[in-house]
Amino acid sequence: MSLTTGKGPLSARPAGRFTAPMPDHVAYIEPFRRRVRATKDGRTVIDSERVLLVHRQGRPPTYAFPVGDVEGPPTEPEPDATGYVTVPWDALDSWFEEDEQVFGHPRNPYHRVDGLRSRRQLRVEAGGTTLVDTDETIAVYETALEPRLYVDPRLVQMDLLTMSASHTYCPYKGTASYWTAHVGGEALEDIAWSYEDPLPEFAPLRHFLSFDENRVVVRHNLPAAV
What are the strands, taking DSSP E only, across 11-88? Predict the structure, then answer.
């Protein structure tokens, strides 16, 4: 994310602008000063301290490795770095930066998530029923994404919500669990999400909910895009 996806500067829909046109399909490649390892069937098949991080438009970043640091998995030559190859993420069982496991895709060093206590108003309605109406919120500002408001479950009509079977993973915040609303005899699926066990740096978001404005009516006073 950040540089090449969402509204990042090298994405197809940047939030800002360059003062001169950028070439199409530009890539940004930089040294990645971390040890990266990967395993398959209990065996380490990649172990490298000579990693490049490759940023391309519309994609999360990818690792590129010297050919000699990869033993066994399928590879593709990295066209913009002679002698380096990339490996499909799903071809391997586990990936690690140093001794910390990484999920989904490499973390982007330019991606930042700030959660700030806020008095921004949040009102959420589902099927004509008010689920939230409060100004006790956490405003989450995440690089290249629209800002979001999260709210403590004690301020939500939790008796109208049940956790669904849906989950997604964010490499920066952790695993998101989703919630279904039951109002007026109807089940409105996956209208909200929460991080029940977030990554340590985002512990303040634990159990807090954010709501999908494409599925329910969400009113807030977050700043508009310019």
Answer: 27-32, 36-40, 43-48, 51-56, 62-66, 76-77, 84-86
